[in-house]
């Protein structure tokens, strides 16, 4: 009886090892693969340039030669809130688009481009693909800063006073900026 159980266990192990070495099926290669986003950061310094502005966002991608039509819609977010989207496709300029950013309303800081909804179709066999590409890129909206250093002399003693300010688009003025308030 022991021999039977040992033989049975050996057969189960052998079958299990063979089943584990089976080659899994491969997913179809992506027709359009987004490899990156880039945009120049902007600096706001007064009321007029803190209103809505267009930012050029460039997309890098690789694409199968079989692709006939394609589109990429990338979310533009700040702090998890959707601000705009970048739209790319097979008509017009394929790698650049403009998004609208409103620092006065959307705020200062890091803006993220991506993830993207990608769709593509081929010339032959009409193989349509639709998927999410998780590639992301970033740009920043920053406030202009000013720094000043003042000196005051009293006898042999010189006292230096440093101050820093940055533009606040919500208040439309420069506000004090220091290590304690950073």
What structural keywords apply?
2 helices; mainly beta; 182 residues; 13% helix; 55% strand
What is the H/E order? HEEEEEEHEEEEEE
Total strand count, please? 12
Instruction: Tell me the Rg in angstroms.
Output: 29 Å
Global mean pLDDT: 79
- Specify the overall morphology: elongated
Beta-strand percentage range: over 45%
Largest sheet: 6 strands, mixed
Based on secondary structure, the structural category is mainly beta
Instruction: Please work out how many helical segments DSSP would assign.
Output: 2
End-to-end distance, in Å?
77 Å
The helical percent reads 10-25%
Low-pLDDT regions:
20-26
Structural features, described:
The protein is mostly beta strands. The chain contains two helices and twelve strands; from the N terminus they run H-E-E-E-E-E-E-H-E-E-E-E-E-E. It has helices at about 1-20, 105; strands spanning about 30-40, 40-45, 55-65, 65-80, 80-90, 95-100, 110-120, 130-135, 135-145, 145-155, 155-170, 175. Strands 2, 4, 5, 7, 8 and 9 form a six-stranded mixed beta sheet that branches. Strand 11 (about 155-170) and strand 12 (about 175) form a beta hairpin. The longest helix is centred in the N-terminal third of the chain and has 19 residues, at about 1-20. It is elongated and about 90 Å long.
Quick gist of this model?
The chain is mainly beta.
């Amino acid at each position: 009886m022991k021999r039977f159980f040992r033989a049975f266990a050996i057969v189960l192990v052998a079958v299990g090892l063979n089943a584990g070495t089976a080659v899994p099926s491969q997913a179809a290669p992506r027709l359009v693969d987004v490899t990156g986003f880039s945009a120049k950061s902007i600096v706001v310094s007064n009321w007029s340039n803190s209103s809505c502005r267009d930012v050029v966002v460039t997309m890098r991608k690789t694409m199968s030669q079989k692709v006939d039509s394609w589109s990429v819609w990338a979310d533009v977010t700040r702090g998890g809130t959707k601000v705009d989207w970048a739209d790319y496709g097979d008509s017009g300029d394929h790698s650049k688009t403009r998004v609208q950013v409103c620092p006065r309303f959307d705020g200062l800081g890091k803006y993220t481009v991506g993830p993207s909804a990608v769709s593509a179709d081929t010339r032959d066999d009409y193989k349509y693909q639709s998927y999410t590409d998780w590639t992301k890129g970033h740009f920043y909206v920053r406030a202009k800063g000013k720094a000043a250093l003042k000196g005051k002399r009293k006898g042999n003693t010189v006292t230096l006073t440093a101050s820093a300010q940055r533009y606040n688009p919500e208040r439309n003025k420069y506000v004090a900026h220091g290590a304690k308030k950073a």
